[in-house]
Amino acid sequence: MNTDRHYDSLISMYAAAPLNKFYNPTMRLEDGYAEIEIELDSKLHHSAGGVHGSVYFKMLDDAAFFAANTLEPEFFVLTTSFTTYITRPVSSGIMKAIGKVVNKKNTQFIAEAIVYDSENREIGRGNGIFVRSKMRLKDAQGFNQEQGSS
């Protein structure tokens, strides 16, 4: 497996997800590692003016998920459980989530993620269990193993 090509294909798949047209995230991948950033604005706020908890969850789950999928070259992984802790409110700037695989066993991955604000302060953390699905990555929207690295 060409690792750079796999990472490029995962990034392409992430960008092609219809939901990400709303969030407009950027992502960087390494082996067992994912880093995702989004710029915050009021469309992500709850009525008290802070970023809604669903955004924290999305950032944390996505970072952990893609960290796991860097280690699975053929199949889409699925989140089977995920625990989220919101440790600090945020309303503006950048949210950056970093996910890392902490355990891999056959078809199961355990990954952790931390999300930071623009001042590099931890604002949330989470961990989850991910399993290999039966869906081949090549069949996922936007995944193109043939595209190669730029």
From TrEMBL:
<keyword id="KW-0378">Hydrolase</keyword>
<protein>
    <submittedName>
        <fullName>PaaI family thioesterase</fullName>
    </submittedName>
</protein>
<dbReference type="Pfam" id="PF03061">
    <property type="entry name" value="4HBT"/>
</dbReference>
<dbReference type="InterPro" id="IPR006683">
    <property type="entry name" value="Thioestr_dom"/>
</dbReference>
<dbReference type="InterPro" id="IPR029069">
    <property type="entry name" value="HotDog_dom_sf"/>
</dbReference>
<dbReference type="InterPro" id="IPR003736">
    <property type="entry name" value="PAAI_dom"/>
</dbReference>
<feature type="domain" description="Thioesterase">
    <location>
        <begin position="49"/>
        <end position="122"/>
    </location>
</feature>
